[in-house]
Amino acid sequence: MRLKLDPRTKLYMILVVSAVVLMSATTTFLWTVRIIMTLIPVILLVIEKRYSSALWFAFLYTVALIVTFMFLSEESTGIFKALLTGYSGIVVQFMPALITAWYVVRTTKIGEFMSAMQKMHVPDGITISLAVVMRFFPTIREEYSAISDAMKMRGISLGGGNAVKMVEYRMIPLLFSCVNIGDELSAAAITRGLGGEVKRTSVGELRLRAADWLLITAFTAVAVLFVIFKYIL
Amino acid sequence: MNGNIVKIEKVNFKYKGSEEGLLKDTSLNIKKGETVLLTGASGSGKTTIIRLINGLIPHYYQGDLEGDVEVAGYDIAKTELYELAGVVGTVFQNPRSQFFSVDTDGEIVFGPENIGLDPKEILERKNDVVREMHIEKLLGRSLFELSGGEKQSIACASVSALLPEIILLDEPSSNLDQSAIRKLADEIRLWKSQGKTIVISEHRLWYLKDLVDRVIYMDHGKIRHEWTGGEFRSLGKTDIKKLQLRPLEVKDILSASCGCEGECGMECGMDLSGTDTDDGIMLDDFFFSYERKPYLFWKKQFSAEDENLTLCIPHLVLPAASVIGVVGKNGTGKSTFLKCLCGLEKDCKGKVEYEGKTYKGRERLKLCYMVMQDVNHQLFTDSVGAEVILSMETEDNERVDEILESLGILEFKDKHPMALSGGQKQRVAIASAMAASAKLMLFDEPTSGLDYSHMEQVAKLLQSLASSGITVLVATHDPELIEMCCDYLLCIENGKTGYMKRL
Asked: Within a domain: residue B135?
């Protein structure tokens, strides 16, 4: 079964998750709410059959949670514990937002995304730039892996032990090829009418369905609970 | 309109930042329904003419433009690009960089959506286009998974869906294999039967010669010759060669199947005549698959018994110091073979034996060097000289000069590699391979998109590499290149070696 969510719901998800991870959870109740919220994108990934990313995330997140609650406390000292705190802090705080964004990027078609933005009356300039960014993720990955291969062949994957060179060798060809591809891509897109004054139409009908409303309600509830229990009570 | 749908009158054009003009006082009229081929060397102004007609010049690529361009009644200089979207459609050279969506369906409807058509009509157009072009099996897929030929089919479909009167194709076959080129020819034939006006800029002539009504030969920004389709087809081999064009007829060596359907390890009509087993580079146990079962604690080695092998070459001898053409259809394992051979796929445990020494795993990286199709990926430094030094174990400036001299790029020693032309960049990559003293050089489609004289240069270069003792493997779709320089031909199909024969 495929669950088709409206891009607007997905954007709302990103917004709420990002906001909630920025408010630190202080009580057991807030932690519970937050963990439940984090489970939602994982379940969505499983529904999309993206098992490996779901599993990896769930694993990292669980480990970080266990570490946070079992081994770390305010009295923790020492370099090892400091590193552990850093790791689990980052994973617990920011991975939920990351995995939600990952889910959205992997499951949203660019056409759908553009018509959703249009329905929300976002200016075309912003919509097109964001769409190009989404289109570019897989391209960057392809280019990057080709460049890595070339570096392996030259035996300079480690930059000869020089960290600056290591980054430089990777970034320079990557920037050049991305600029070239971007240039050709824009030329191709504008010859097919992108950026015109005509109002764009869309074949994909966008409608908020039951699943959308359910998720919107759930995420709103999470946001409201967090604000009430943290700042008002 | 007196029947002319495209009118280019006395146009001079110079790109911003370049000193020399690319088009000099060029005039060209194209009649409605005509199929016109633009040909000539790289940099002769073919692409510039395409860009004049689709309005990318002057609206996207800036420069000094003089003269008038009128397309289907629109004065191009005064028309916004989006107004032309439904009038002129363009298929570009690089299939990778001309799609905007990530899925095939979205791409076909992208143009019509942009010009604000009614969704119902868009879907009707999409269905029509898909039916006419027989691309049903490409629907609902990610564009990143498609082969070059399939991407180009989608590009044609998405141009078709806008129902333009004029269709432009800018070197559309550069990255395609022979069967994909035939498919492209069918698509052009379909447009021709629908009465579209078609303008094609192209180096490969064999697939177009029966389709075109008029051929325009360009040289240094000017139209030098003009033939009708009939006159063009009757040009002799020597005339074509004098004009530095690619041949009109090519041998059909590439699309023919080499007849490997059987199990891995079977020698399917393996013809190793002329390969002396003692004198060569021996490859053993090259097995590889992209589909890998997950193992928790150990990595399984691939073997001949595995199912779904992408590459299965139990034993192969490559004749040393020769140029070996590697042919086979797109997606049949040529690139995988090259990548495995030079040790880039670390799960492929093949052994290479050369001059009594066996190279395994990462050692293969020292023996082999691959010049990639997109050579931009393998130039890392800020000068040609530094690029060569980077490959050396100890810095030896005399050797650098020697290598650059032998490739004819010594004058660019202090230039930035990215400031060079495509062919020069390719030489820089070869220079760094020579500096790494690679004995086996692999080329992945070194001549895609090159004109005849550049192709001839590459062919000479490959031969001179071979005569200096380097074994050269070149994966290619250009029968012209094979005729010019290959000593042997290795056919790969379904990851297996079909035949290896002396030419």
From this structure: yes
What is the model's pLDDT at position B269?
A: 45
Contacting A residues, span 168-187, partner chain B, CB-CB under 8 Å: 168-169, 172-173, 176-177, 180-181, 184-187
What span, in angstroms and rounded, lies between the C-alpha atoms of B216 and B226? 5
Position B2 scores a pLDDT of: 55
Q: Are residues B392 and B491 in the same domain?
A: yes
CA-to-CA dists, residue B469 to A23, A44, B352, B435, B440, angstroms? 67, 58, 17, 14, 9
Q: Please, which pLDDT band fits residue B183 given cuts at 50, 70 and 90?
A: very high
> Residue B329 sits in which domain range?
280-502
pTM summary value? 0.85
Residue B253 — very low, low, confident or very high, per pLDDT cuts 50/70/90?
low
Chain B residues with CB under 8 Å of A116 CB are none
Q: Are strands B357-360 and B351-354 parallel, antiparallel or unpaired?
A: antiparallel
Q: What residues of chain A, 199 to 218, have a C-beta less than 8 Å from chain B?
A: 199-203, 205
Q: How many CB atoms lie within 10 A of CB B49?
A: 29
SS3 B108: helix
Quote the pLDDT of residue A163: 79
- The full set of domain ranges for chain A reads 7-108+206-232, 122-191
Residues 336-395 of B with CB under 8 A from A: 339, 342-344, 365-366, 369-370, 372, 374, 376-381, 390-391
Q: What CATH code is carried by the domain that includes residue B455? A: 3.40.50.300
Same domain, B219 and B144: yes
Least CB–CB distance from B110: residue in A111, A146, A149? A111
Distance from CA of A213 to the nearest CA of B (A): 25
Answer whether residue B263 is part of any domain.
no
